[in-house]
Amino acid sequence: MRVSREQAEKNRQGVIDTASHLFREKGFDGVGLVELMESAGLTKGGFYKQFESKEDLAALASRRSMEMAMERWIRVIARRPDAPLDAMIDLYLSPGHRADKGDGCPLVALGSDAARQGADVKESFEFGVKKHLELLGDVILGGSAEVRAELAPAVLSLLVGALTLSRMVNDDRLALTFLSAAAAQVRSITKA
């Protein structure tokens, strides 16, 4: 049975969204095509009609993951426009975000995997990182645009590093120490 173009595009987007979640949860190599397509409610046979390769899907899913992370930051900023950086810190360095691997930050979930991927996957992450840095530069208060642009990579590094370390340990107290220490440092260097 033929599928309409509209349904085919809907199915394709569903696979990309499913891959975005599963890759963050299990890594690029931790998800097979059968599991991926079944999770999207489709058969494996349809994969190559929609994507050139698993790496093609990994690049698209990575871009989608980065877009979703930005959308989350934008929503939290909109709820606290008087303290946008605090809102981002509170969201990002929270125990809930630490626990939410499948829908959490793709930089943390896939950073080391992405470093071993091809140019297309890296390009998706680079695009997202640049967008994150722009947004951080916009929400860091005080100082010139140049100072804020210099602080943004340090802030992003602190956030990603602390969340990564917090997920690497079993000791919840130690994990929370990483999160709270990073929050204090970000607030200190940005005067937030």
What is the C-alpha radius of gyration, as a whole number of Å? 18 Å
CATH fold field value:
Tetracycline Repressor, domain 2
The residue-averaged pLDDT reads 94
Share in β-strands: under 5%
Count the DSSP helices. 10
CATH architecture: Orthogonal Bundle
What would you call the shape? globular
InterPro entries: Homeodomain-like_sf, HTH_TetR, Tet_transcr_reg_TetR-rel_C_sf
DNA-binding region: 32-51
Domain HTH tetR-type: 9-69
Organism: Pseudolabrys taiwanensis
Describe, in plain words, how this protein is organized in 3D.
- Keywords: DNA-binding, Transcription, Transcription regulation.
- This is TetR/AcrR family transcriptional regulator.
- With 192 residues, the chain is an all-alpha fold.
- The protein has a single domain, classed as Orthogonal Bundle (Tetracycline Repressor, domain 2).
- Helix content is 77%, strand content 0%.
- It has ten helices and no strands.
- The chain has helices spanning 5-26, 33-39, 47-50, 54-79, 84-92, 95-99, 106-115, 119-139, 145-168, 172-190.
- It is globular and about 60 Å long.
- The termini are far apart.
Keywords, please?
77% helix; Tetracycline Repressor, domain 2; DNA binding; Tet_transcr_reg_TetR-rel_C_sf; mainly alpha; transcription; HTH_TetR; globular; transcription regulation; 192 residues
Structure described in brief:
The protein has helices at residues 5-26, 33-39, 47-50, 54-79, 84-92, 95-99, 106-115, 119-139, 145-168, 172-190. It has 192 residues and is mainly alpha-helical.
